[in-house]
From TrEMBL:
PANTHER family registered for this protein in UniProt: MAGNESIUM AND COBALT TRANSPORT PROTEIN/MITOCHONDRIAL IMPORT INNER MEMBRANE TRANSLOCASE SUBUNIT TIM8, MANGANESE RESISTANCE PROTEIN MNR2
Predominant localisation class: membrane
Lineage: Eukaryota, Fungi, Fungi incertae sedis, Mucoromycota, Mucoromycotina
UniProt entry tagged with the keyword Membrane: yes
Protein localization: Membrane
GO CC annotation: membrane
Similarity-based family: Belongs to the CorA metal ion transporter (MIT) (TC 1.A.35) family.
CDD domains hit by this protein: Alr1p-like
One term of GO molecular function: magnesium ion transmembrane transporter activity
Protein name as catalogued: Cora-domain-containing protein
GO terms classed as biological process: intracellular magnesium ion homeostasis
Keywords: Membrane, Transmembrane, Transmembrane helix
TM region(s), chain numbering: 378-399, 411-430
InterPro entries documented for this protein: Alr1-like, CorA_cytoplasmic_dom, CorA_TM1_TM2, MgTranspt_CorA/ZnTranspt_ZntB
Length: 436
């Protein structure tokens, strides 16, 4: 859709507000049809897929009629998840960005407000707009679904915060769901839900993220030198999400190499610490690998979709799509490289874990060997002492022993000599047999 056509289409906004009030009344109904949000796509070719902006008074009336607060999605009502997100009044959750040279970013705390309506009406008159929404409420999603003709499956996926990464094609937009992660420990992944329209981009997520602000800063630097469309904005967002994996991959690389070097030179006191390091690094590596593998599949599907558009495009659109394809292929190569590196680091950690277990087994074997030696010596000493103890105990019993009636001590000394000779012979045999 061109800019001139978009501007002429939105000149009728005041006259279309009454017509859109009927759509607001549909949102206030509590029947099944209102909950499902049946889509109505534009029937004429070349017409914009957006409806005109509704009046804020109608929204306020709708919210007052909702006695139970925000309307929960059907899936969340059935699952019993009634924990609605709460926001501080000063939190800026919506950034309405314009890629025009003199365009500015409109920051809004609430979308269902007079300023929010004015920002939407202003931005939708242009091309290359970007609406960035953090933690949208159910009412806001219903309004946006009516405004942009979003399919109910897409609305349900966003409100349910589905974690699966995927790409889905609809008549008036492309839905792309990708996962990023926070910097906390443990890693907490969260999704970006991107809706690529002909003239703009919608983005939703449910955790604070630095990626949108970085993308806006990047776009501000290049929008004076080139024409930016929704495909380019989406590429910049995907590039920021993928680049966020680089520090984590580098950290895992350094940790895995250090573990591999230290796994064979550990002292006994350091083995427990090494096991914790191996377990923690393998856990992070598995989480990052799982996030990267799914992105490769999404990127392949996205590039296939752009290749199909490139075959049908012409003129400046052909050049733009060609540039987007080149940059997406760079992201794809980056993802492939990181995935291969993570597989290599997983193998290093697996080998280090195997070496650690081998060291533990060697240590246990040496302990068993030492214990066996000690037990053999004790058994041999017992073999020496038991006969001597038996002979010596005969003189302490009320029994008849040889030489008892003889007053001479010759018997006593001969017995001592015999016991000493017995001990020396057994000790000699023990040394010879390497028992002692």
């Amino acid at each position: 859709m061109s800019t001139s056509h978009s501007q002429s289409s939105f000149k009728e906004i005041p006259s279309m507000q009454r017509a859109y009030s009927a759509g607001v009344d549909d949102l206030m109904d509590s029947n099944v049809e209102s909950d499902v949000l049946y889509p109505h796509y534009g029937s004429q070719a070349g017409k914009t897929a957006f409806t005109k902006s509704p009046t804020i008074d109608a929204f306020a009336k709708m919210k007052r009629k909702m006695s139970n607060g925000s309307r929960l999605s059907r899936q969340r009502r059935l699952s019993g998840d009634h924990n609605c997100d709460t926001f501080l009044p000063e939190t800026v959750r919506y950034h309405i960005y314009s890629s025009e040279k003199n365009g500015e970013t409109v920051r809004q705390q609430q979308l269902l407000s007079t300023d929010g309506q004015h920002g939407l009406e202003t931005i939708l008159k242009t091309t290359g707009w970007w609406i960035d929404g953090q933690s949208p409420t159910d009412e806001e999603m219903q309004v946006l679904a009516k405004l942009f003709r979003i399919h109910p499956l897409t609305v349900e996926a966003i409100l349910a915060r589905e974690p699966m990464e995927k790409i889905e094609l609809f008549p008036n937009y492309t839905f792309v769901s990708v996962r990023s992660f926070g910097t906390e420990d443990p890693i907490r992944p969260y999704n970006f839900y991107n809706l690529i329209f002909k003239d703009g981009l919608l983005t939703f997520y449910f955790q604070p993220s630095p990626h949108p602000s970085r993308v806006r800063h990047r776009l501000d630097q290049i929008k004076h030198h080139m024409l930016i469309g929704p495909d380019w904005i989406h590429y910049c967002l995907m590039d920021a999400i993928v680049d966020a994996f680089c520090p984590m991959v580098h950290q895992i690389e350094m940790e895995s190499l250090a573990i591999d070097e230290l796994s064979l030179v550990l002292h006994n006191s350091e083995r427990s610490d090494m096991l914790q390091r191996i377990s923690g690094c393998r856990k992070h590596a598995s989480q990052i690998s799982r996030l990267l593998v799914t992105k490769v599949e999404v990127m392949n599907s996205l590039m296939k979709r752009y290749e199909e558009k490139w075959q049908r495009a012409g003129g400046y659109a052909l050049k733009t799509l060609n540039e987007v394809l080149l940059h997406l292929s760079d992201i794809q190569d980056h993802l492939t490289t990181m995935t291969q590196n993570m597989n290599h680091y997983n193998r290093i950690l697996s080998r280090a874990h195997t070496n650690y277990l081998a060291q533990v087994n060697v240590g246990l074997s040496m302990t068993y060997r030492t214990t066996n030696k000690v037990m053999n010596r004790l058994s041999f000493l017992g073999t020496i002492c038991i006969p001597i103890t038996f002979i010596a105990s005969l003189w302490g019993m009320n029994v008849k022993v040889p030489g008892k009636g003889i007053l001479s001590t010759s018997w006593f000394y001969w017995v001592l000599v015999g016991m000493f000779s017995y001990c020396m012979i057994l000790i000699f045999l023990g040394k010879k047999w390497r028992v002692l």
